[in-house]
Known about the structure:
This protein is α/β, with parallel strands linked by helices. Among the domains are: 65-460, Alpha/Beta hydrolase fold, catalytic domain (Rossmann fold); 589-730, no CATH class. It is 53% helix and 9% strand. The protein is built from 32 helices and 13 strands. The strands form two sheets. It has an eleven-stranded mixed beta sheet, sandwiched between helices. A two-stranded antiparallel sheet has the order 7-8. β5 (173-177), α4 (179-190) and β6 (198-201) form a beta-alpha-beta unit. The protein starts with 18 loop residues before the first helix and ends in a 12-residue tail after the last helix. 41% of the residues are buried. Residues 1-11 and 733-772 have low confidence and may be disordered.
Amino acid sequence: MSKPSGVGPSTNGSVDPFAWWRAAGTYAVDAAQRAVLYADIERQVGDQYRTQREARMPNVLHFPAEFVMSGLDLPRPVNYGLVRIQASEDRPADPAKRPFVVIDPRAGHGPGIGGFKPHSEIGAALEAGHPCYFVGFLPDPVPGQTVEDVMRAEAAFMRRVAELHPESEGKPAVIGNCQAGWQILMTAAVWPELFGPIIVAGAPLSYWAGDNPMRYSGGLLGGSWMTALASDLGNGRFDGAHLVQNFEQLDPANTLWSKQYKVYANVDTEAERYIGFEKYWGGYVFLNDVEMQYIVDNLFIGNRLSTAQLLTSDGVRIDLRNIRSPILVFCSYGDNITPPAQALGWITDLYASDDDVRAHDQTIIFSTHDSIGHLGIFVSGTVGSKQHRKFASAIEQINLLPAGIYRASVDDATKQEQKLLHDPYLLSIRASGIDEVRDIVKPDPESDRRFDAAARVSDINLALYRSIWQPWVCALSTSQSAHWLQTLHPMRLQFEAWSSQHPLACLIRSSAEYIRGHRQPVDEANPWWQMQQRYSAALDRALDDFRDRRDHIYALWFDMLYGSPLMQALAGHAYGESAAVRQHPGSTPEHLALMVGRQRQIESSVDQGGVLEATLRGLLNVLSRRPAVDERYYHLAAQLLEQQAPGRWSLAELRAAIREQTLVMRQCGSAAVEAIPGLLKNTPADTIRKAGEAITQMAAIDKEPGAEEDAVKHALQQVQALFEQAALAQQPRIQAPLELAPAPVQTPAAPQRAAVAARRKPAAPRGKKGVR
């Protein structure tokens, strides 16, 4: 450890007795200066809060935008709006690419977090050349606005975006953050024809899963009657500051100390970042009472979305299995608001097996981060320049994936890979399955029974509140009382209490300006500075320990209360009952009949197709031997298509063919591969050989010695032989003179015997084992 200037032995070898005190004086000057500068930063935050509060459409978007459509003009008006993000002149949007629509969460904060920085979700879409749109909202909801009204508005926005881009081959891709994630999936479940690929980031969809301490709050508070009370005290509006306060209580160390200390300790460099973040964190918005009550009753406590128990006002079931677009779920193990179990639990809630996923023709991709926090999923520049950048640039590759469950990862690319991709990162996608998702979610039937009991108690308490107390609360609550409760909320007071309107603000401001010109920062080797750092670290650990003990106590209380025989009996569960509380939604007879007909159709199509179908079968037969494929395969395939068959097939046709041939290979197995020569019977020989060469080039990517590569080599040899057999069959034959090859004499019965022998010949067995 380096020593501070003036501390330690003197030049003649003696110890300086005043070094410690000189270090203390230097530290005291620095600490006093930092205190004044920190106070001035907080003053700027207070001024910023007041400016945002008075703005009609407050947001934190970094990018310029132009207005497109207002939700206030819809038949069922809402406080949402659609804007188009203006691309820069040096990187204009490509009108042929599918547009992106980024939707921000309305969970207490204002809009703009999806485009908060240049390296963000919006920035990634613009960098990839996609037209980009943003869906935001006003601070105040339209009176009577419901969750379903917002869903209808989002569907109207998607129709409008599609109308503005008729030249785009694909439907709009959508990114939904947090609350917007589950809401956009609800919209896509009702209007699946409007959506392209959907990316949900940090979105909770299965609320009883995992070990997140927030899931215990509803039960320990007696259910959703507290939500109704808060809305009634707000005169029909729920204050989003309550939600933000709940978020902050999850991490008391950050809320009470480390967030502010980081600014104080690094006051010369942290001001811009801190002020910008507080602009978002302090922008509180409101929800209608019916909106918030619907969310708490049906999602947070009832957990009805992931098992298709919700209905719209006109009786349409909100079933996530109806979504036909690929769904990419991005979550993080460092997220204490939406851990991976809650982001992925809907998959195990809806589906019993991988065959069940494929039977509903659904493509699900999930990607996990090891450490980033909840807001970091949307805000972090590292995530924005890596994960979101790759998701946007590879959106067409994602769209081509056949039905099934996959896992995606983003890794550093090698120099050779960077030359092909022109990107420092590589997106890899491998086949996954329901078992891997189940290992992450860890479904617990016993835990589900306790949460089911909490949901029953919540319904009872809410009915009691509405019958007894709500009339009195509503009679005493006025717009003025609601205004004062909102103004005096602790989350707002921290901004209101200190701003330029404070009597001492002028003194702090002038002192800060002087200090910036005469700054005397302390050396990091100063012993007093090091004591400060150690004290901060100790306080962080103490608060973290308090949080862990508190959360453990909450979990114990919840399990003891709702796991008791009395509560279980009140919820309708007998003691020792082992049946699952939440059954899989199952399939309708119509769907099962459709699947039977679809299987027959697939079996009958094994001998149907052309060069595209034959090439896809060859590729699937070879590449299925590898555990994962990355975007290099997609880029090479795109180059080969552009060189050999430019414009012959659209992306929609390619996607349909890939999904169809994957089903054929999975169901018919080796019979589908052996049928390749028959598919090529009307294709020129040179075209067949070019297709075979393309398969060979694709197989040459990522060759590594091992058993898997031996299987790839064997499958490739088989496919090459089939393609060469088909090519030879198409070459013109040289016919010999008739006198040198007399036709054999055949009796009239010979053709009949030949036909009978052909019918008696056993058919080649069709394998049931297909490719992954």
